[in-house]
Amino acid sequence: MGKSERRNKKHKGVRNFLIVTTLILLAGIAYGVVQYNSGLATANEGLIKEEQTLFDEFEGADPQFGEINVLLLGSDSRGEKVARADTLMIAHYNQTTHQMKLVSIMRDTYVNIPDYGYHKMNAAFSLGGPELVRKTIKDNFDVDVDSYAIVDFTGFSKIVDVIAPDGIKVDIPYAMSHGIGMTLQPGNQVLNGKQLLGYVRFRHDIHSDFGRVERQQEALSKLKDEVVSIHSILNFPKLLGVVEPYINTNVDNRTILTIGKGLIIGKAGNIETLRIPVENSFEDKRVAAGAVLSIDFEKNKQALQEFLSTEEIKK
Fold first, then answer.
1. Which residue in 180, 201, 51 sits closest to 126, CA to CA?
2. Residues 213, 275: contact at Cβ < 8 Å?
3. Which whole-number Å values give the CA distances from 100 to 14, 48, 61, 103, 227, in the listed order?
4. Does the model's pTM come out above 0.85?
5. Reduced DSSP (H G I as helix, E B as strand, rest coil) percent helix, strand, coil of the chain, to 5
6. pLDDT tens column, 249-303
7. How far is the C-alpha of 32 from the C-alpha of 238, rounded, in Å?
8. Quick check: helix, strand or coil at residue 267?
9. Is 138 exposed, middle or buried (0-12, 13-18, 19+ CB in 10 A)?
């Protein structure tokens, strides 16, 4: 075979490779678009999107040392005229170690809300949106967050069904029915999206709101494990489509993709969790705002700061 023939064969091989690569890329883009549109079709119009223009500008801190602290707010209005943040968490992600941490702040924690005085923690959202929640956390615990995400619980079940189409396994301690529109039987159960929503919303826990917070952390930890599965990776575009109408966030797409990539290839371990107030740092009281948790601020401030600190990693 002459040089000319070998050169032509080589060029033909390169051309064929480029053609195949282009077709694969186009197929991938088409698949992503179809899946994303499928997700949008699965979702209904989210309520949160209509409210986002009412929020004050969010003035969160700049992320430091590859660490991201996102304020997670769950809107679970059940007919109240003014919606409060029924779920309030801080999600911490370290881009170096891929470690995730989750802090739940009890909604009845009695705190000083800037410009409004002492109220329950969950009142801050209805009084001033995510920015006032951020200010309240910073003023009371000296911890700042850099971004926020508000999740409309009406879309939670659809999101769960895309992430975990075979359901999420939980151990239900006793029958749950009041206020959730269904009855969940005790024992090991595999719950679909609607049932899991009932599981995390159930308010009449024998451990009061502490049990509900524990169930919320459990559900998010198990959903995180499902997100990194092969099924969820293939359905990621559809998941984005389902999520889009129900989440209002200022987290940019680059950060979302960075976290997603870290979870998939970084082999992140179990989510570490913390509850505020911590054990033996509060007492039940009744004030004008109703039944509240009167906390030891110094003890809880120290616990929260130590939990989110990565000093050992930086050294």
1. 51
2. yes
3. 44, 26, 19, 10, 14
4. no
5. 50, 25, 30
6. 888 767 776 676 666 665 556 789 999 999 999 999 999 989 999 999 999 999 9
7. 8
8. coil
9. middle
In the block, tokens 């700042």 appear at 144
The pLDDT tens digits of the residues spanning 146-183 come to 999 888 777 788 888 878 889 999 999 999 998 889 99
**Boundaries of every domain in the chain:** 48-314
Nearest in space to 156 (alpha carbons), one of 213, 210, 104, 223: 223
Contact partners, residue 22, CB within 8 Å, separation at least 6 = none
- Residue 58's identity, in one-letter code, is F
For residues 151 and 70, is the Cβ–Cβ distance under 8 A?
A: no
CATH superfamily placement of domain 48-314: LCP protein (3.40.630.190)
Count of Cβ atoms closer than 10 Å to residue 213 Cβ: 23
Cα–Cα distance between 157 and 269 in angstroms, integer? 25
The packing angle between helices 156-163 and 208-227, to 10°, is: 40
How large is the C-alpha radius of gyration of the chain? 23
